[in-house]
Amino acid sequence: MPSSAGRLGLVIDLNLFRENPEQIIASQRARGKEVSLVSKVVELDQIKRTTLAEFETLRAAQNAHGKLVAQASKEEKVNLVAQAQKLSSDVKEADARAKLADEELTKIVFQIENIVMEGVPEGGADNFVVLKEIGKKPEFSFEPKDHTQLGEALDIIDIARGAKISGSRFYFLKGLGARLELAMMQMALDQASEAGFTALITPTLVKPEVMQGTGFLGEHSAEVYYLPADDLYLTGTSEVALAGYHSDEILEDLDTPARYAGWSTCYRREAGSHGKDTKGILRVHQFNKLEMFSYCKPEDAEKEHQKLMAWQEQMLEKCELPYRVIDVAAGDLGSSAARKYDIEAWVPTQEDFRELTSTSNCTTFQARRLNTRYRDENGKTQIAATLNGTLATTRWLVAILENHQQQDGSVIIPKALRPYLGGVERITPKAK
RNA sequence: GGAGGCCUGUCCGAGCGGCCGAUGGAGCUGGUCUUGAAAACCAGUGAACAGAAAUGUUUCGUGGGUUCGAAUCCCACGGCCUCCGCCA
After folding, report:
1. Distance CA A172, CA A149 (A)
2. In the prediction, which pLDDT does A72 show?
């Protein structure tokens, strides 16, 4: 039986489009994205449902007839089979139409981004709102070095050799530099574990449907490394694997959010950022990251978002870094985020705040595409909400090194990190 | 990389072209018995989707194909296991 109309391609929950298309239209507009797609989806959804219903009716008739054939005597069978042939071709035709309708719908639905949450600032990249600013910026009585100079002088970051073997935006972390990153990651993982996160070391190569489902193949697909020989994508964050982790699953109990801390190396092509942050390790093709990821009920998502932010702030404080929190504007949100808060640390030599973490509330956007549901009090399945937030990345080293540098060229290790570095309190320049 | 075996409901495990969503057992739920429990016995019990419900569709690793009809036949892919080769 070739029929497959019952489970067409990716299962996408379209209730939002049926219930409140105006909201989605408004959202697309706020993001500066195509609006007409929404009515197209509504229209195609209707067509799909009609064709699917036709298929199901025909199929029911065919099934009923099939039982007759099975029970019939030899002589009766000849006639019955002739009728069955007709039924069969009708079913096949209806199946093909249903499939086609679904394919068209899927293509368009994937271009529509998540609904922007109420309260998100309007505008683009520069229209963020600063929610708070914490910590004291360091005041130097000397000319502070940037992290590249520090990395070289302390012999802990080797940019030149990174470029030699892999090209620009690659680097070696060396000696205490390597250990410092691991220390920071360990500290983050310990904090996450204490907070109830389950540690996961994730695959960094994923299938197209997972990449698609998490929303990374939309506008920013040029950012992603792709391996054509294997039809696999290198992930730019473990969020991809973590979101896919429970795809096509029904979570039986989400009264408490399911929380995972994903540790992975991340790969980014940085295709759109030529000439930007070319120095050092601020913007690189490969880095490590510990990512928090939560599955929860939609009504708990905003509360969870605040929690993720609090955990991030806790890490920043352990690293003794001055920072600010910004509420990212609608036009600058990733396609899956309904709201996004970035935490930016002060980078002295740039005299500016730079993004160290980002936490997004994806509401039901990812779960709708990845078919991740939970069972509510009444036993009914509902779409889950997903959220993510950074707990530590290689980029943090930039802020740690620059903020904690001393006049003699050394860098003081934040107290909380020392136990993870075998008690090392300070990184001093190599002897000449 | 080469050769072979396997993949069925929560689990074990039958079925190998048609009244098969699937026999049986374990488990689970309810009941009888018991002071209580265990045991025994009786009954019920896969899942998703749509629907108020009746009911319908889908589902036997995944995807294709053959056929009026596929868990059952064919092809491809994946996973697990065994053996050989190779290698961190």
Report:
1. 14
2. 84
N-to-C CA span, chain A? 77
Question: What's the CA gap between A125 and A130, in Å, rounded?
Answer: 13
Q: Is residue A309 within 8 Å of A389, Cβ to Cβ? A: yes
The helix, strand and coil proportions of chain A, stated in percent and rounded to the nearest 5, come to 45, 20, 35
Residues contacting residue A124 through CB under 8 Å, at least 6 positions apart: A32, A329, A331, A332
- Could you give the CA distance from residue A187 to residue A194 in angstroms, rounded to a whole number? 11
CB count in 10 Å sphere of residue A159: 19
CA atoms within 13 A on the CB side of A161: 9
What pLDDT score was predicted for residue A5?
41
Nearest to A185 by CA among A390, A355, A422, A33: A390
Separation in Å: B84 C1' and A231 CA: 30
Which portions of chain A are predicted below pLDDT 50?
1-9
Amino acid in position A174: K
Alpha carbon dihedral A425, A426, A430, A432, in 10-degree steps, equals -110
Which residue numbers of A are catalytic?
A: 268, 283, 355, 358, 395
What torsion do the CA atoms of A381, A383, A389, A391 make, to the nearest 10 degrees? Answer: 20
- Give the pLDDT confidence score for residue A2 in this predicted structure: 35
Q: What are the φ/ψ torsions at residue A178 (nearest 5 degrees)?
A: -65, -45
**Distance of alpha carbon A23 from its chain centroid, rounded?**
23
Among A366, A386, A156, A207, which Cα is nearest to A291's? A386
Nucleotide nearest A61, from its CA to each C1': B56
Side chain identity, residue A160: A
Tokens of A44: 């195609």
Q: Which two tokens stand for residue A322?
A: 């001055």
Nucleotides of B under 7 A from a protein CB: 18-19, 48-49, 56-59, 63-71
What integer pLDDT is reported at residue A9 of this predicted model?
A: 43
Mean pLDDT, chain A, whole residue set: 90
Predicted local confidence at residue A432, as pLDDT: 55
Smallest CA–C1' separation from A49, nucleotide: B50
| Cα A226 from Cα A223, distance rounded (Å) | 10
Tracing tokens 């996450």 back to the chain, one arrives at A192
Output the pTM of the full model.
0.91
Between CA A389 and CA A277 the distance in angstroms is 23
Spatial separation of the C-alpha atoms in residues A317 and A303, rounded to whole Å: 21
Q: What number of other Cβ atoms are within 10 A of residue A46's Cβ?
A: 13
